[in-house]
From TrEMBL:
Keywords: Ubl conjugation pathway. It comes from Pichia angusta (Yeast). SUPFAM superfamilies: Clavaminate synthase-like. This is Fe2OG dioxygenase domain-containing protein. Residues 216-322 form the Fe2OG dioxygenase domain.
């Protein structure tokens, strides 16, 4: 079924929901009308199943009172092919940014520091991480019922105790992936990176949703790209433990590979940023909300081998988790699984709303439509309800230059009725 038809089907059953919101949800549920409908029924009450949904649904037939349908492998695959075609079509223009000035001018959410650490610390850190290769594991997750493995290996380092509740990013759901503690070299690097990060933050306006204290890295995701064939797909980093508007500091060690970044929505160019050994890239607050990034495995994406690491590139991304956010993460109203925090971005009228989505399917492959809007107004409180069913209570953040969505705001509140 074409997207327009899917939207019409949903709109006919949920006339009270704005079409832009329906589209956003349809995309969130990988194009599944059934899953979108189940989630909407959670919010707005059950609806009659219209014949067109039964007959033409991408997930096959469904009787009333049946268990939710799960996408078949074949269907999920063909849907992904479609979305791949779309992203390929808009991916034509790509520009390479070679130095600090070009990077920070073209993508003002980024800060770039070549040769950041003292040389001997960067080399020691690289050698130490190369020797720990066995600790880096495939990420494992499910998309629309299919088990998937990442094409590069990862691990997580924690500063201090490894928390009971390890969650987010797809890493902690993999039993093979044991978290590790910060080593001496990581801690030394962390202090230097924190100083740089806080210096930059001091020059920017702090949003109430951001961390209000000094920025301190409490965890670090390590990515191991053994050869140029190992890649990391387009994504924005999960917000569940690090919260909205996070700062993420990314240190590259070993081979020079291309890092790509593009806006989440609209006609955006793709920027290629070569990241050499010992370069630090800061992704400032708003980067995860507004952009996607990846490390592609193009033939020309390996720009320089490293004298000792050869083709291997190791990346450390330092992050600050927000403990109250973790302890106040809602559980799914449908299946009680933990939920992940995301932000809508596709359509101007709904862009910027944070929401919680059930994560059960990501881990088990059994999809669940659990959904809440996120109310992050109390995010700094130890005990707070961070979810709501009412879009008027939902937290929204829009980029200052997102005029399209800022104009759409006024209309949106009228459009979404109780
Ligand atoms: O390897 C990189 O440069 C990026 C890593 C990354 O995007 C991530 O860990 O989420
Ligand atoms: Fe990332």
């Amino acid at each position: 079924m074409e997207t327009e038809q899917q939207l019409d089907t949903l709109q006919s059953q949920f006339p009270e929901v704005d079409k832009d919101v329906l589209l956003e949800l349809l995309i969130t549920f990988d194009g599944s009308v059934e899953q979108t409908k189940l989630m909407l029924e959670e919010q707005f009450g059950p609806r009659e199943i219209k014949p067109e949904i039964k007959g033409k649904s991408p997930t096959g037939k469904r009787k009333a009172n049946d268990e939710p349908c799960v996408l078949t492998k074949k269907k999920a695959f063909s849907q992904r092919q479609t979305s791949f075609k779309v992203s390929k079509a808009s991916a034509n223009i790509s520009t390479t940014l070679y130095d600090k000035e070009q990077i920070e001018t073209m993508v003002p959410y980024l800060r770039f520091y070549p040769n950041f650490l003292p040389e001997s610390l960067a080399d020691d850190l690289l050698d130490e991480l190369l020797s720990k290769r066995a600790k880096f594991k495939d990420k494992m997750f499910h998309i629309a019922g299919n088990e998937c493995h990442s094409n590069h290996q990862s691990t997580v380092f924690y500063d201090g105790d490894i928390p009971e509740q390890r969650y987010d990013n797809g890493l902690y759901r993999n039993s093979k992936c044991m978290a590790q503690s910060f080593t001496g070299n990581i801690r030394t690097a962390k202090f230097l990176i924190e100083d740089q990060a806080n210096e930059v933050l001091a020059t920017t306006k702090r949003h109430p949703l951001q961390v209000q204290s000094e920025w301190r890295a409490s965890m670090c995701v390590g990515n191991y790209f053994h050869t140029n064939k190992n890649n990391l797909d387009w994504h924005s980093d999960r917000l569940t433990t690090i919260g909205p508007l996070p700062l993420i500091c990314s240190l590259t060690l070993g081979a020079t590979r291309i890092f790509r970044i593009r806006k989440q929505y609209g006609e955006s160019p793709i920027y290629n940023i070569p990241l050499p050994h010992n370069s630090l890239l800061l992704m400032l607050p708003g980067t995860q909300e507004e952009f996607k990034h990846c490390v592609p495995s193009l033939a020309n994406s390996l720009l320089a081998k490293h004298p000792r690491a050869n083709e291997t590139r190791i990346n450390l991304t330092l992050r600050m988790s927000r403990p109250h956010l973790l302890s106040n993460t809602p559980s799914c109203p449908v299946c009680r699984s933990a939920m992940t925090l995301r932000r809508m971005y596709k359509k101007p009228a709904s862009r910027g709303y944070y929401f919680w989505l059930c994560d059960g399917g990501y881990r088990s492959g059994k999809e669940c439509p659990g959904f809440y809007f996120a109310d992050l107004s109390q995010i700094e409180k130890p005990r707070a309800k961070l979810y709501t069913r009412d879009v008027k209570q939902a937290t929204r953040w829009l980029a200052e230059d997102d005029h399209e969505a800022r104009i759409a705001t006024e209309f949106h509140m009228e459009d979404v009725k109780d």
